[in-house]
Amino acid sequence: MRIMYSSLIAALGVVAASTVHAGDQLPTHADLKQALKDVVTEQNGGFGLNMWATIVDRDGAVKAVVFSGDDRGDQWPGSRVISAQKANTSNAFSLPGLSLSTANLFSAVQPGGSLYGLQHSNPVNTNVAYGGPSSEIGTEKDTMVGKDTGGVNVFGGGLALYNAEGVLLGAIGVSGDSSCADHNIAWKVRDKLELDYVPAGVSLTKDDNIVNDITDGTSASGWGHPVCAPAAADIAKGFPSTHPVQAKK
Known about the structure:
This protein is of the alpha+beta class. The protein has 7 helices and 6 strands, in the order H-H-E-E-H-H-E-E-H-E-E-H-H.
């Protein structure tokens, strides 16, 4: 019994060490902010607005919350928590062998869809989301940091994060523009952070890219997302060439 107990403690220690190590590989507040600021200056198929981005670890705890503008009021205030919802969603419904973006969930959660009702699960913890002083919003002291905000969001902007070894570290959520532009910005930010070693997905290119296959309200694949604007759809369609996901080393 003593040997079994010791073995269990040792095994748990390895798991804990691995979790800490994986969490340490997530971007810092400064790295995420710079990547977001760089990407929002590009053409992303939306309104060209400033954005919010949130990263969560594999346990769902928020690691960083940033905005691209000069002040917290330079982007939609409501998009702060939406970005956290998107990060939580992609982390919660992705696996080491399968990545699902929030864009991939849109059709499946519609009435009659295979995941209808999912959007009503895991509500946002409002005490976590809104509990701190407004002066700290979007800083390293944002009240959400270190806590699980929860929430489920089912339109574009959330992507799982995989390192070069294919380890699922957590997810990123981006919000502040059209949902299609949100997806495109999240995709480019993930690319800049080099956390796009996506193992598999439901898109035609077998990754977690947005799927624009809805005709007359029905998605051919079951994983479709509406087209917000032709420009946004064209940018996403080009990702396999311009910003391809990487194969694990």
